[in-house]
Amino acid sequence: MRIEKLKLHNFRQFIDTQVIEFATEKDKNITVLIGDNTTGKTTLIRAFEWILYDKNEFDKKILLNQNVIDNMLVGEEQEVTGTICLNHNGKEYEIQRRQNYTCIGKGEVRERRSKAAIYYQQPDGQTKSEIRVDFASQIERILPKNLSGYFFFGGERLGAIGSRDDIENAVKGLMGLDVLYNAMAHLKSVINKLRKSLDFSGDEEADKLQKEQEEKEELLKQKQRELVTIKEELEYYQEEKEKYAALLKANESVREDQKRRERLEESVKGLEVRMEKAQSEYVSAFSRDAFSFFGIPLLKEAIDMLAEASDQVESVPDMTAETIDYLLKRGYCICKEPIVKGSRVEAELLNERAKQPPEAIGSLVRRFKEQAMEYLTISERYEDTVASRYEDIRVIREEIEQGRDEIEELNKRLEGQKDIAYLEMQYQKADIKISEFEEKKGRVQEEIGVYKNEIASIMRKLDNYVQNSKKNVQIQLQIDYASEVYEWVRKAYYEREKAIRENLEEKVNENFQKTYHGSRTIIIDEKYRVKYYDVTTEESDGLKAVKSLAFISGLVELAKEALTLNNTVDVGPLYYPLVMDAPFSNVDTEHIQKASAILPEAAEQIIIALMEKDWKSASSVMSSRTGKMYVLEQACGRDGKRIDTITHIKSREVCDV
To answer: Residue 412 in contact with residue 202, Cβ under 8 Å?
Structure first.
């Protein structure tokens, strides 16, 4: 199948009739369609699916161009058409689909008639004749619908194409395994029906055994269904564990950085507490003895001055004029001696009072000198104490600044990196779930084994009753024959399925190793999901794209081999296209170039829609194999703004990059 031309008329944003002719030469097998978002790249890929399979995956199901709808009159009819011209098995085909719409109100339409037809070109090269067979069955002969998703797909499918649930059914259908699988299911159904048809009426014990067998078989089915669910859950958590183990290994340096950051953050918090304490001690030391320290020059000057003073007299320490006045008024001394006016005692007290301020300052000067000397002693320790407290603050501040600088550097390095604590939590969660489901699996398998043994025991007992009826003997013979055939089909199925999977795995690895030069090896599991043999590092989006393209290429090769073998007419090798929308979304330049190296060999014809920036990365590899190039341009209104509902397809020189 080689696509030669696509013709669209009023299909979505492709207003009027627009045509794309595709590259078909062997050495220039790539057609590139370049367009920004919303210009219609995805619409083109879906146009193929609509024409071939009447598949409409648009959110808005109306296919008619909106501008055409807006200008229709009530009752007016317009038509959307899509035509694919292709060569298949050496014959030229024109596959056409039409959809009519009638206007039912301003800006509203309703679907009317739809028609699909296939025409082929007569040997004269001019006359076209319609193939009058079922359209869908004819398309199935050209390209089976269940495989179409691997020939026509968007970029959003690329990263996950190796894990899609429909791969298994698609491959089995392609390789004819579904015939054997359906045969097994049919034979099993026949065997069960035959067993149920055994007639034990009239024999109470045999009838009881048969009912017990039916009950056990129903319980067995329930446990088998439960086991399937458990295995699916177990497989999911095993994959989760592998994924997070790979992420943890890939981010070992990040783990160390994050742990270092945590230790630094704890250290800085401790230092901040010490800083607060040191600052408090510094303020306390400074405030408590500051007067002594800063008053030293004045105190020394005062002491020197007082040393020269002549009115310094000796007096009773801490004696005050108020004390002496009190004694004189009371009339007797503290020793009980009466104080008589004009007596010697009165004279001595008045003499002592004269020594007190304001009469005398001698005692005050003496006490001041004593206190000043004490301050001088304190001031000698003050400077050392304050300096020591300040040095503590300076050292702690330097340690905090160093810690914060290192934290800031680690933050920059860790920006955008994985959260290791989260990864470890998910890994542990998966590990716990695996243990839980392994335990459940073992328990259910034991129960299944018990039910199977009980059923086998019941069947052996029933065999004794079978011989009592000619009819039952005949039915049992049929059961035995059907069981033998079932075992033969089952063995053939699993042998064939294993060979196909190994063949696909070999093809995928061959394609993968063309661009990947590491130590990874791809395996295809029993459900045809693409995995790595040993998952030890994280898989980037770019590597996912390369892996998926390798898988697609292998699947295309497998499809060609199968369809060639199933083709009854020898017309040489079959060709199949690969039509892709934005396969390089979220892929870095390096992997775009690696994937571009696979693409030209992935299929005999490549049709790829992508953005200009992605083409710039891919063009150095793909331009030499590119035969046709088109640009999707949105029309502009009078105000210069783009019109989303009108896109024009324009040819462009391949060298114009």
So the answer is: no
**How many whole angstroms from its chain centre is CA 358?**
92
Mean pLDDT of the chain: 81
Instruction: Report percent pLDDT > 70 for the chain.
Output: 81
Cβ–Cβ < 8 Å for 219, 391: no
Neighbours of 376 (CB within 10 A): 15
Q: How confident is the model at residue 541 (pLDDT cuts 50, 70, 90)?
A: low
3-class secondary structure, 467: coil
Query: Could you tell me whether strands 152-154 and 522-524 are parallel, antiparallel, or unpaired per DSSP bridges?
Result: unpaired
- Is the preceding omega at residue 358 within 30 degrees of 0, hence cis? yes
Q: Decide: 306 and 379 in contact? Cβ < 8 Å.
A: no
Angle at the Cα of 192 (from 186 to 198), degrees rounded to 5?
135
**pLDDT tens for each residue of 435-483:** 999 999 999 999 999 998 998 888 888 877 777 677 888 888 888 899 8
Confidence of residue 140 (pLDDT cuts 50, 70, 90): confident
Other beta carbons less than 10 A from residue 159's beta carbon: 20
- CB within 8 A of 20, min separation 6: which ones? 5, 6, 31, 33, 44, 628, 630, 649
> How many Å apart are CA 205 and CA 217, to the nearest integer?
18
- Count of CB atoms situated within 10 Å of the CB of 168: 17
Give CA–CA dist 289/383, Å, rounded.
10
d(CA 8, CA 96): 10
H or E segment and range at residue 411: helix 362-414
Q: What are phi and psi of 331, to 5 degrees?
A: 100, 0
Query: Taking residues 578-583, what's their average pLDDT?
Result: 83
Distance of CA 456 to the CA centre of its chain: 48
Q: Enumerate helices (H) and strands (E) in the chain, giving the number of each.
A: 18, 14
Question: Which residues, 6+ apart, have CB-to-CB distance to 590 below 8 Å?
Answer: 542
Query: What are φ and ψ of residue 347, in 5° steps?
Result: -60, -40
